[in-house]
Structure formats: structure tokens, C-alpha cells
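Field log, afternoon session.

UNIT: design team B
ACTIVITY: writing a sequence onto a fixed backbone
BACKBONE:
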């Protein structure tokens, strides 16, 4: 098993690795909608926060020589499920090829770190 911390990656909000790799699978910790340059500062609204989370995930994946095309499963956590689900879906979908959408679970939660509206974690498979 390999435990990865990505240089220049998002600042962890708790004690965890950016990703853990085992048997060709890479489990990427849920990312928040802040940036590595401004930890805890969140953009306004679900569209901007979804984009920020996806960009943070891309930074972690790039540090592992992976990309969104290697994602096999995503879990999305939303604090305002009813209000934000449709716009989040529209924003999220734009990051993946239409014929290569990963399996996904979307969960409504009561709270996230920093008061974020969204968090996404991933499971990837090395090619």
C-alpha cells in the first residue's frame, strides 16, 4: 500500500493522505472547494464550489500521474441536496466525457468542513 501526499495539493483539513493506493486502485480523499493558495476560503454558490472541488481533484490526480478518465467511482456529498443537486450535476458532468461517466453516489449531509456546500471523493484504477 502507498500513502500519497501531493506537493502543492490542497491543504488537508484533517489527518489524512490525499490518496491511498493498493492493488492498482487509488482512493482519493474527498476534496473541498477551497484552493491550495487560500485554505478555508470558499467560492460562492454550488456551481463555483463544484468547479473548485473538481479542480482540486484534478491536482491530486495529476500528482499521481492520473486523470479524470481513470475515475471508476465518485461520491458526492451535498449540504443543500434539493437546492443544489441539478446545478451540481450540470457542472460535474462537464468534467467527464459523455460516454465515460464514472459510477456515482450522491448523498445529502448535514455539514461539511469549512461550511462547504459540496465534497467529492474518488476511486480510480491505474491503466
Amino acid at each position: 500500500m502507498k500513502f500519497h501526499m501531493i506537493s502543492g495539493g490542497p491543504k488537508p483539513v484533517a489527518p489524512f493522505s490525499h490518496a491511498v493506493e493498493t492493488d492498482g486502485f487509488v482512493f482519493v480523499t474527498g476534496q473541498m472547494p477551497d484552493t491550495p493558495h487560500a485554505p478555508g476560503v470558499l467560492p460562492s454558490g454550488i456551481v463555483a464550489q463544484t468547479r473548485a472541488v473538481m479542480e482540486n481533484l484534478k491536482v491530486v490526480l495529476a500528482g499521481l500521474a492520473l486523470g479524470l478518465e481513470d475515475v471508476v467511482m465518485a461520491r458526492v456529498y451535498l449540504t443543500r441536496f434539493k437546492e443544489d443537486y441539478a446545478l451540481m450535476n450540470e457542472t460535474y458532468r462537464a468534467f467527464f466525457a459523455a460516454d465515460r461517466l464514472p459510477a456515482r453516489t450522491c448523498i445529502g449531509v448535514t455539514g461539511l468542513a469549512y461550511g462547504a456546500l459540496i465534497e467529492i471523493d474518488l476511486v480510480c484504477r491505474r491503466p
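LOG NOTE: The chain has one domain: 2-125.
NEXT ACTIVITY: expression trials, pending approval
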